[in-house]
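Pasting as-is:
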Amino acid sequence: MKKIKQVLLPLLFLLAPLSMVNAQAKVAHIEVQKLISEMPEVIAAQKELKKLEESYTVEMENTYKEFQTKAQTYAADAANQTEITNQARQKELEGMQKNIQEFQQTVSQELQKKSVDMMQPLIDKAKAAIDKVATSLGYDYVLDSSAGGSVIIAKGKDIMADVKKELGF
């Protein structure tokens, strides 16, 4: 019995560190923001959003020019009009200005909603690809190494190329 203890005890001390090595988690990192910004679908969505924003900008500029033209016309003709007409015109201009501000807010909200609607499925697609690649490579954790991310040292494997391959670009 004493001989068994003498053999097993040193053996236990030799095997214990190996089991701890196997218990350590495998960690990789990826710049999620960079991945998403380079996805072809994201680039196409951003172009579509930019076109939509430009069309709204043209519409707002035209409305504002119309407002300015009316304001200048009314200001130049104010001396020839009655007080009641000038007050009615002032109220009309105030209404137009209010409509312009409401339109700007509506456009801003609509663009933001459209952006979320277009981008969320693409973000989910990227995260699914990251998960699939990490699982296939045997990583337990994948940290976001984007600027402001939670990685201090990124010496682990960068799986950006593998995820891009999974996404097809």
